[in-house]
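the two lines:
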Amino acid sequence: MNTQEIAKDLTSMWAKGQFNESGEKYWADDVVSVEPGGQGEPVSRGKAAVRAKGEWFDNAHDIHGVKVEGPWVNGDQFSVRFTMDVTNKENGQRMNMDEIGLYTLKAGKIAEERFFYGG
Amino acid sequence: MNTQEIAKDLTSMWAKGQFNESGEKYWADDVVSVEPGGQGEPVSRGKAAVRAKGEWFDNAHDIHGVKVEGPWVNGDQFSVRFTMDVTNKENGQRMNMDEIGLYTLKAGKIAEERFFYGG
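prediction for all of em together
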């Protein structure tokens, strides 16, 4: 599959909330995931660490809704916009998250994912 | 200025249609601009080449409207979404362009801009 096809498959899975399933299908073993920093470690290296980050997010939030827009493609990279309506379980704060995810593919797998926060 | 401040300034200029002015203010002399390919040369190197690409676009299109969303920031990079309503002057075709621009800053200037196309 080319970038467009993989991006469409991932976008379709994310629109159904299948974030873990999509990772198991497409994360490279040595995937690198980069958040903008702030709380926690901004860079997660390897499938186990990236999977753990997703599990942490799932456990820490009630997810009321996810909107996925895109993909936008260039070569072996594509971008997606995520708009999420979530409640932080710890402090009860409900918020809208607005992010761009930038994905770099190698050999049909996600080699890097990098997130950009709006605000 | 940090990434967020430069991104806000650029976004504000783009929302006013000041694409050339913003470039003169922020393009590094050795800026690299990467389109997804297709027609023309996908990589423009240097301020003169990137400026010429903008002039070509302006001359080849009637621009009816530009919507700018963002910025979304991560470290020295930020993303912006451009939605443009344009008519291709050569063939008269009116179309909505939906793009993500990914900007990488170095020393307060745009070192690289990379565009992702939706569709």
